[in-house]
Amino acid sequence: MKIFFDTEFTGLHQNTTLISFGAISESGTEFYSELNDYDESQCDDWIKSNVIKNLRVPHQLRITSEMLSINLRNWLESFNKPIEMWSDCLSYDWVLFNQLWGHAFKIPKCVYYIPFDICTLMKIKGIDPDINREEFSGLGNESCKHNALWDARVIRACYENLLNVKTQSE
């Protein structure tokens, strides 16, 4: 089972904190959470304008990182099969995913410990990884870019389109 996921976080630095998590399975089942315990002092103007403005859940209904780890574990384990996690430029996403459980060795046992990145798949397929994801996905330019669930949907659509791209050796 492939799960396509994205995170939004407080900045591209070592001590970043998770703002939201979105995922979609290859069968279309979705998971989305927004957090109330991220470090707001780390949010610069870009994060406020491009991430915070795309949050959908009222602040009083957002959850803690601890609650997210419980809910996400339950969702992942509900598939009852091994899971590959796929993302896009996933360096921070994967670190934050592992941090939800305190350590990489504590991620749910159903999750394969090696993540997969559509950027690498694009490169292998001879496609410039710096392309517009919404255009390549065929989903169009949604106003919710930088919303973790929307971005997970885009990642899934890009992956599906990449499966149809032939490399020169194929």
List keywords for this structure.
single chain; Nucleotidyltransferase, domain 5; 5 strands; 33% helix
Can you describe this structure?
The chain has 170 residues and is an alpha/beta fold. It has a single domain (2-163), classed as 2-Layer Sandwich (Nucleotidyltransferase, domain 5). Helices cover 33% and strands 16% of the residues. The protein has 6 helices and 5 strands; from the N terminus they run βββααβαβααα. It has helices at 45-50, 65-77, 91-99, 118-124, 133-137, 148-163; strands at residues 2-9, 18-25, 30-34, 84-87, 116-117. It has a 5-stranded mixed beta sheet. The longest helix has 16 residues, at 148-163. The radius of gyration is 16 Å and the shape is globular. 29% of the residues are buried. The mean pLDDT is 94.
Please outline what is shown here.
The chain is an alpha/beta fold.
The backbone outline, from C-alpha atoms, is globular
Name the helicity range. Answer: 25-40%
Stretches with pLDDT under 50, minimum 5 residues: none
Structure class: alpha/beta
**CATH architecture term:** 2-Layer Sandwich
The main sheet orders its strands as 3-2-1-4-5
Total separate domains: 1
Mean pLDDT over the full residue set: 94
CATH superfamily: Ribonuclease H-like superfamily/Ribonuclease H
Q: What name is given to the CATH topology?
A: Nucleotidyltransferase, domain 5
- The N- and C-terminal alpha carbons lie at a distance of 25 Å
The number of E-state strands comes to 5
Which percent range describes the beta-strand content?
15-25%
| DSSP summary: helix tally | 6
The main sheet comes to:
5 strands, mixed
